[in-house]
Amino acid sequence: MKVGFIGLGKMGGNMTTRLLNDQHEVVVFDPNKEAVQAAADRGANAADSLEDLVVKTETAIFWLMIPSDYVDKELDALLKLVAPESIIIDGGNSDFRLSQQRAEKAKQHNVHFVDIGTSGGVLGIEQGYAMMIGGDTEAVEKITPLVESLAPKDGWYHFGKPGSGHYVKMVHNAIEYGIMESYAEGYRMLREGPIADIDLAAAGKVWQNGSIIESLLNDLTKEALEENPTLEGIEGFVKESGETRWALEVAKEHNLDTPAIQAAFDVRLESQKGKTNFATKLLAAMRNKFGGHAINKEK
User: Fold this and answer.
1) Handedness of CA 249, 116, 148, 287 (dihedral sign)
2) Residue 1, CA distances (Å) to 24, 86, 139, 254 in order
3) Of 249, 226, 208, 239, whose CA–CA distance to 98 is shortest?
4) Among this protein's residues, is 138 annotated catalytic?
5) What 3-state class would DSSP assign to 18?
């Protein structure tokens, strides 16, 4: 299947590789010319502009993997260029409420808009990406071969109307905040509690073999502690990227109590004001492990 792919960052670049490895035709565009050339070296067809990408993507399926702040600009530009019945996919982390609005805008141009919440980070190139999909059934059926190449078995689902995919992904990320915070606080207790000299990586290894709290996140935490037991060189600044903020807004609107998620979110906000400790340093290390995020505040 042929697809035009816009956005070749940490996830987008790896996703195009996975598609190419499964024999899809991928046309790529990104303002970063080095990223475009790297994708071309892997077998992608390089476009030097959005207009060029639309011309070369004859099957009229376009996949955006870009920061949420840029989606409206790219969507508006694409809607002026693409043919009726084209499909535009937003696979990034967007506010589901905006995805609903974007779907309506696309519908006015007789274009399908599909929102796909994508999870997997830098690990997805090997293990596949969990994909939470919203949009009309006709469009989702057409893009299913692409989704099946990107996701592991049983790793994707069409949840329904536009916005539902990004809604499920928003809740996923809110849960992620809470789980990460629990691990970080627990490891801090092991390090700074009443029993000295506990090997944190060893505890993590035990927890990864038969315990109830075994998880991919804990495995990555164990790896981070094996590599840097004292987390030397990590400031403890922890970024929040939007999804959990949106989730808390929705929870408040619908009178849903989310104390654990709120507390985890507040820890990140406080870290940005300078309130850091071993736990926030570990949160930063976790984010780097699964997402390739900067380990310290970007200057």
Assistant:
1) negative
2) 5, 14, 14, 41
3) 249
4) no
5) helix
Q: What CA–CA distance (Å, rounded) separates 116 from 72? A: 16
Contact at 8 Å (CB) between 16 and 127? no
The DSSP call for residue 83 is P
Predicted model pTM: 0.93
Residue 118, beta-bridge partner list: 131
* 148-184 pLDDT, tens digit each: 999 999 999 999 999 999 999 999 999 999 999 999 9
Confidence class of residue 292 from pLDDT cuts 50, 70 and 90?
confident
Of 60, 11, 56, whose CA–CA distance to 29 is shortest? 56
Catalytic-residue membership of 169: yes
Which entry of 176, 181, 243, 289 is annotated as an active-site residue? 176
CA distance 186 to 281: 13
Q: Which residues, listed in sequence order, are joined to residue 87 by a DSSP beta bridge?
A: 61, 112
Catalytic residue among 169, 222, 281, 289: 169
- The per-residue pLDDT for 295 is 82
Rounded Cα gap, residues 275 and 290, in angstroms: 23
> Which whole number is the average pLDDT over 99-120?
97
Q: The dihedral of CA 127, 132, 135, 141: what is its sign?
A: positive
Torsion (CA) 26, 27, 28, 34 in degrees, nearest 10: 90
Q: Kindly state the tokens that stand for 57.
A: 């993507």
- Report d(CA 24, CA 63) in Å as an integer: 13
